[in-house]
Specification:
Elements lengths: L8 E6 L5 E9 L7 E3 L7 H9 L4 H6 L17 E2 L6 E9 L2 E2 L4 E6 L2 E13 L5 E7 L3 E2 L11 E2 L11 E7 L7 H7 L17 E8 L11 E6 L32 H10 L1 E2 L5 E2 L10 H12 L13 E5 L4 H11 L3 E5 L2 E5 L8 E4 L10 E3 L10 E8 L5 E4 L6 H6 L6 E5 L6 H15 L4 E6 L12 E4 L5 E5 L1
Parallel strand pairs: 1-3, 4-6, 20-26, 22-24
Antiparallel strand pairs: 1-2, 2-25, 5-14, 5-17, 6-8, 7-8, 8-13, 9-10, 9-14, 11-12, 12-13, 15-16, 18-19, 21-25, 22-23, 26-27
Length: 486
């Protein structure tokens, strides 16, 4: 069951090891709860501090928190082609789309039907980490079909622009594993007086495409627009590594063993361990393997792979384009939104969870609560921090990857409980290009938001060993029974 999550900080006060004081806990009532623990030395990095500060918020509250940087755009990140050699490097994870980066001016050459410069060549850089696989191609805001047999120079003909036996558009794609410059570009533009294409223009580690168009006024009345889908870079899945307790040939640091994935927890794991760029630099956390304990991360990854009821796809998937000037914490926030997830760091160790909490690991009753300390029950928040409905947008592949509004979630009963007001939260699921999944996330999030009851209690010292995201169960005879704290 999805829980109401509140801003929860459990403060552990220690006079000295032999005289550990009580644990001050805030318990959110109803079906379940979430907590965070702060002690000396926790959250020593900005990434850890930011994630720890949000670990105890509801899914809606976390999504609505103000960000220190500019918000991520709605829909796909690159909705217009960028240009220039100083544009930050990018790459994609999971299933996503982009218009790419214009890495050089367009070229023209040749003649056809008496028209000079009848061929137009556009080159787009779509990712600066190797291994991205090209999916569907969009030209002039429509998906097109590529022929099965490639032209020796131009690449795969676009069947939608074929007239009889004459082709008017071609696509050639390199996935970053190339070791030589494109022979057509080298032969055709090697002596270009303005922008010569030289033999060292290999694009090592760069995923790029060459689009060639033949002049046709009816087909191309304006400069052709381009957008492409991709399966993101291969990632390490420790569940497929026999040497760490998994089963398979994956090995950390051996990129050739990696595979593509849409699992958001695998993406987060790789971000925390660090993603290697072609120049040898690392984007991400560079956490050591022991600092990302596999027992926890295996469970979170497996939860994402569970097939949703009535469907054939995993319940939690993700996809997004990352620019290396973005903070890893921002990306982890987005990925957590796709899997009802939470991530925190305590003492240099990273823990996470997907979906609902697990079984309780700590049980206590009224007799365990330290009654000499202050206790508090907050049954309802104020209307200013209450929501009874949810609206959301997400990048929709079926809408050419433009941002689309999901069907809103309203509840007349909750509106009546809130003095007849419709209190709507708006969330952007920027990393969830899956319409059915977005609907499930919305239902879970708004239901979670309606679990209001919150307790503030002081627990005995033996509760000090408990970590955030671990369940506790309270058998409270006087009020409510079997409350869980996460």
């Amino acid at each position: 069951m999805i829980r109401r999550i509140t801003l929860l900080i459990l403060l552990l006060t220690l006079a000295e090891p032999a005289q550990a004081g009580p644990l001050i806990g805030l318990l959110t009532g109803a079906a379940g709860f979430t907590g965070a623990i702060t002690i000396a030395g926790i959250a020593t990095t900005s990434l850890g501090f930011r994630l720890l500060a949000t670990v105890a918020l509801s899914a809606i509250s976390r999504a609505l928190q103000p960000k220190p940087k500019l918000q991520m755009p709605q829909g796909i990140r690159t909705q217009y082609p960028t240009a220039g050699g100083v544009t930050p490097q990018t790459f994609m994870l999971g299933y996503y789309a982009s218009e790419g980066n214009r890495i050089c001016p367009d070229y023209t050459f040749g003649s056809a039907g008496g028209t000079p410069n009848a061929y137009l060549v556009k080159i787009r850089d779509f990712g600066d980490v190797p291994g991205m696989s090209l999916g569907r191609v969009m030209i002039n805001k429509q998906f097109v079909t590529l022929a099965a047999v490639a032209h020796p120079d131009y690449g795969f003909p676009v069947l939608d622009f074929r007239e009889g036996t004459t082709d008017y558009a071609w696509v050639k794609y390199y996935d970053g594993s190339q070791i030589a410059a494109d022979p057509f570009m080298l032969a055709q533009f090697g002596a270009d007086p303005d922008y010569p294409w030289s033999a060292d223009m290999v694009g090592t580690g760069i995923c790029y495409a060459i689009f060639t168009f033949r002049y046709n006024r009816e087909r191309f009345s304006d400069d052709p627009s381009l957008r492409c889908e991709f399966t993101g870079i291969p990632l390490y899945d420790p569940r497929k590594d026999t040497t760490v307790g998994g089963a398979g040939t994956h090995r950390w640091g051996t990129l050739a063993t990696y595979q593509t994935t849409t699992n958001p927890q695998i993406m987060k794991y790789n971000i925390l361990r660090g993603i290697t760029l072609p120049d040898g630099s690392i984007w991400g956390g560079e956490a050591a393997a022991p600092d990302v304990p596999l027992s926890v991360w295996f469970a979170a990854m497996n939860e994402c792979d569970v097939v949703a009821n009535g469907e054939t796809a995993p319940q939690f998937q993700a996809g997004l384009e990352i620019s290396v000037d973005q903070e890893p914490a921002d990306i982890i926030d987005e990925l957590d939104k796709t899997c009802l997830g939470q991530t925190f760091e305590a003492g240099g160790v990273w823990k996470t969870r997907s979906g609902a909490p697990g079984l309780p690991v700590y049980f206590f009753t009224d007799d365990d609560v330290i009654i000499t300390e202050e206790q508090e029950l907050d049954p309802f928040p104020g209307l200013e921090s209450t929501y009874n409905g949810l609206q959301a947008t997400f990048p929709d592949p079926n809408s050419l990857w433009n941002p689309k509004e999901a069907p809103p979630r309203y509840n007349p009963i909750w509106e009546a409980q809130d003095q007849g007001r419709r209190l709507i939260a708006n969330i952007q699921y920027n990393a969830a290009p899956y319409s059915d999944q977005v609907q499930r996330l919305m239902v879970a999030s708004v239901n979670e938001e309606r679990r209001f009851r919150r307790h503030t209690l002081v627990l005995p010292p033996d509760a000090a060993i408990l970590e955030p995201l671990r369940c506790r169960q309270l058998d409270q005879r006087a009020k409510w029974v079997h409350l869980q704290v996460v």
